[in-house]
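quick one, 165 residues, struct below
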Amino acid sequence: MAPGEPARQESHGDAGPAGQLSLGEVTSNSGRISAARRVLPQQRALPFSRSRLVGLDEALTVATRTTGLHFSIYLGDLGEDTRGYAERLHAAIGSRAPEAVLVAVSPEQRVVEIVTGTESGRRLADRGCKLAVMSMVASFKEGDLAGGLMSGLRMLADQAGSKPR
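---
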């Protein structure tokens, strides 16, 4: 056996051309070779790299600080009633919901919902929200999910203006 080559164990039965089995293999009494293999659970790929997550966090922080509104993003399935689910997510924000802006995106469903509270809705016109959605969708079509979200957040923050004093 050469250095670095995996150890092989011999079996009592006929194990093939060289009579050797790989680690985790055994020849049964019937002559069948059984093998044990370690199978690791498949890791779900995250939708964003670490640097893109940092960029999104920064965009959320800047939008929140400059406007005084509470911006948040939801990325995932929105169910059959996408608007209703997004509104329930927005309500779950709790006491900050009146000043909150939720950008809910379901890439698999190809849906973007923007939900505003009573206060944030006064500062964000429907037309401006639609423009932000159009901008995000254009980036999403190019495969840039994080870039589209960051661009949409900037547009919404610009439209909302700086926080009232």
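The two ends are 78 Å apart (CA to CA).
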